[in-house]
Input
Amino acid sequence: MKKSVCSAGLATLAVVLCSCGAAPPPPPETPPYVPSYAFSATGSGGKIDVTVGLVAPQFGDQTKGAVYSMGKVPIESPGVSMQTNAWDDDLAKNFVSGLRTTFNELLSAKGFNVTGPFDSVDNMTFPEKKGADFVLYPEVDVALSQTVTKKGVVEEGNEFTGYDSKNDCELTLSIGGNVLIVVKEPLSGEKMWMKRVEIVGGQTQMITYKTASADVACTAALSREGQNAKAKLLEDAFKAVMTALDKYVTGEEFQMLKTQATELREKKAY
Output
């Protein structure tokens, strides 16, 4: 009888020790957020006798402080211009590509004849310029600012598995600047129409996370949540630009602009 009690006690102790020593299951990984760069434009209901040459997004004067850092450089550095980084970072690249594609879709939905897209006005041939009443492009001058703060060091674990020191980090994100929608007469290069869309910087997001160990700097371990927050800010900026373009671009206004562009060409004898 005593032997049975003793055996049961040892078995219970073993279970307790195993349960204490077992590492807790890792938390489920946060899936990447895929921003939507789709937009349903207000249709015109018919074709408009206006041909628009669509030009790829251009970039503003970076000396005015429009820098765009997407995690490819240390956060403490000033960042790199969007013009440079747009082709190195998937989030920035997709934002620019989304503008380019959806501008085309919006103009087509409104009944315009669309040519292009062209990399720049200078890359258009003379016949391409002559065949377009206007060229239209977005001029991007946007800054995504991000600040990483090391809040302290935390110990995680227990007496059975051991303790690990990790950096407790905080990432603060905000976006600001503007996108200028420009319409030019392609042969003369004269600006015919401009609308500025302000990207409000009040959409600040704060993300907290921990590094794998205290040896890993906060700037080297941006979390998936941080990347997702950046993607959502860019998605909001895209929607603001497209909503404004949908509002401002109308067949009536551009037909009046076409009359002015025709007069300009006649004066310059193109």
